[in-house]
User: What shape does this take?
Amino acid sequence: MDILIVEDEPDIATLIARALQREVLAARQAPNLAEARRAIAERQPAVLLVDLGLADGSGLQLVREMAGQGPFIMVVSGQGDEVDRVLALELGADDFVCKPFSARELVARVRALLRRGEPRPQRAAEGPPEPLVVAGVRLDPARLRIAREDGPELRLTAAEAGLLELLLRRPGQVVEREEVYELVLGRRLLPQQRGVDQLASSLRQKLAQLSADRIEIASVRGRGYRLVIG
Assistant: This one.
């Protein structure tokens, strides 16, 4: 289990690698997309730390390619405005850290991602909802997974899992778009922004794929979404 740092500034890549290594986390470095792809083919990392501004293209290309393929993805970038953050999350990133950053906070966030892949202890009533099996599909947002009882599973992004958790907490009820934007994406919804709709669409496709269209995220015009189980 290791972390691949995709960063074209050697000083920053070394700073991150040393911070991870102090916490006994193995780290490799790749300065561009081509080297990152070679490193992933050689050995898939547990976590990808991806800069957006790379010499041979945008780190978002790698986020898109690797989303749902195994590694957790954290974008670490100086391009930290709202558009970049929301786009990265929509494409499949699990977290976004803006430069300049605290090395201690970054390592803590990496550890938090790694914990998502571990079995969770039983939560108190106020914690995330317990996994629910409906229409032959196990919905488990706490572990970023939805899976058929007979085996096939899909990994959720952090944003998709957050939306699913909100829907599971309110069975049959409408979850407002503004709530999704603030609670899941961490921003206030502004006029004409469509990021929440795209997030709902990506989760809807995954649920439909595993449930043979028996689990649906229904859009409620002018309000938000609710979970419908057929």
